[in-house]
Amino acid sequence: MKLIFLGAPGAGKGTIAAAVGKAQGMPQVSTGDLFREAVKNGTELGLRVKGIMERGELVPDELTIALVRERLGRRDTAGGYILDGFPRTIPQAEALAAFQRIDGVINFLCSEQVVVRRLSGRRVCRACGAIYHVENMPPHREGVCDRCGGELYIRDDDRLESIRNRLRVYREQTEPLIGYYRSRGLLHDIDSAGNVEDSLVQLKPLLQNLQQGT
Ligand code: ADP
User: What pLDDT digit, counting tens, does each position of 15-62 carry?
Assistant: First the structure.
């Protein structure tokens, strides 16, 4: 099954994609994670995208599309995948459609107020990428990852100024994808303002239906 998770920053795409991917044995392809990995490793791509990401702007389409094309060319994604954070613009969606047939798009609906609260409390493990929240999903020991013992940090783009910018970019450039995929009969909405379990409960029947259709 080839899925896209669409939604504002902080709407829960990444957390739910990690849970579903693990449960179903599907690779989660997160462009944000791939870019962060490149920054961490100091690669040429990483150097180009570091400042863009810190400001909460979008990486240029050509770079992003090339990255995804390379990733989806690897063998582990042949049987299906969850795209988390891609596409984020209409040109990205069109480029994707030219080489992949997507089975469904899950649209995570969540108010801006909830999203801002989530992003400003988010903590991420520097070593394994696991996501926590200081109030909703705190680690057992403050600042330490439950899963691997790694150090938890605040993403540079989770500072308030960047958050506001990311939400503006989302409204202007990514939200039009809702209409794009709805008009193609691929869009399925879920209300992701509750906790992780609430989202998973709504997602289950949708995924079963999509699976039967593939
Ligand atoms: P979030 O969804 O929480 O904003 P991500 O981890 O998905 O965060 O992305 C972090 C940053 O990586 C984005 O703000 C942007 O700079 C870059 N990025 C990720 N995916 C894309 C994409 N599809 N197109 C352009 N830039 C992207």
Answer: 999 999 999 999 999 999 999 999 999 999 999 999 999 999 999 999
Average pLDDT over residues 139-158: 95
Q: Is 28 a pocket residue for ligand 1 (Cβ < 6 Å)?
A: no
pLDDT at 70: 95
Strand order in the sheet with 28-30: 28-30, 81-84, 2-7, 104-109, 187-191
Residue-wise pLDDT for 121-142, tens only, equals 999 999 999 999 998 899 999 9
Cα distance between residue 121 and residue 164, in whole Å: 15
Would you say the CB of residue 85 lies under 6 angstroms from ligand 1? Answer: yes
Binding site membership of 56 for ligand 1 (Cβ less than 6 Å): yes
31 pocket-lining for ligand 1 (C-beta < 6 Å): yes
C-alpha of residue 145 to centroid of ligand 1, in Å: 23
Residue ID of nearest Cα to ligand 1 atom 23: 86
Give the 3-state DSSP-derived string for 31-56, with helices as H, strands as E and coil as C.
HHHHHHHHHHHCCHHHHHHHHHHHHC
Is the entire prediction scored with pTM above 0.85?
Answer: yes
Nearest CA to ligand 1 atom 10: 32
